[in-house]
Amino acid sequence: PFQVLGLDALAGYSAAQLKAAFRARVKEFHPDVCKDTENADLIMRRVLEAYEMLSGNMGMMLER
Q: Is the dihedral of CA 22, 24, 27, 31 positive or negative?
C-alpha cells in the first residue's frame, strides 16, 4: 500500500501526510488526466484500497 501511494514503508506518516499522498495520486491517475485510460480505473481502485487500508490502521503506525 505504501508503494501505491508513493511512500516509504519504513517511515511514519501522520493522517494529513497520508491524505496528501492519496490526493496527489488521485490527481495523477484520475481518468480525465491519465493518458492510459485502460489502466486508469484499475490504478484508481488500487490507490483507494491502499489509502483505506493505511488510514484504517493509523493506530498501528508511528506519527511524526
A: negative
Going from the N-terminus, what domains does the chain have, and what CATH number goes with each?
2-55 (1.10.287)
13/30 Cα distance (integer angstroms): 24
**pLDDT tens across 10-48, in order?**
888 888 999 999 999 988 888 788 777 778 888 888 999
Q: Is the dihedral of CA 53, 54, 56, 61 positive or negative?
A: positive
Please state the separation of Cα 44 from the chain's center in Å.
Answer: 9
CA distance linking residue 41 with residue 37, whole number of Å: 7
For residue 19, count other CB atoms closer than 10 A to its CB.
13
Distant-in-sequence, close-in-space partners of 43: CB < 8 Å, separation ≥ 6: 29, 34
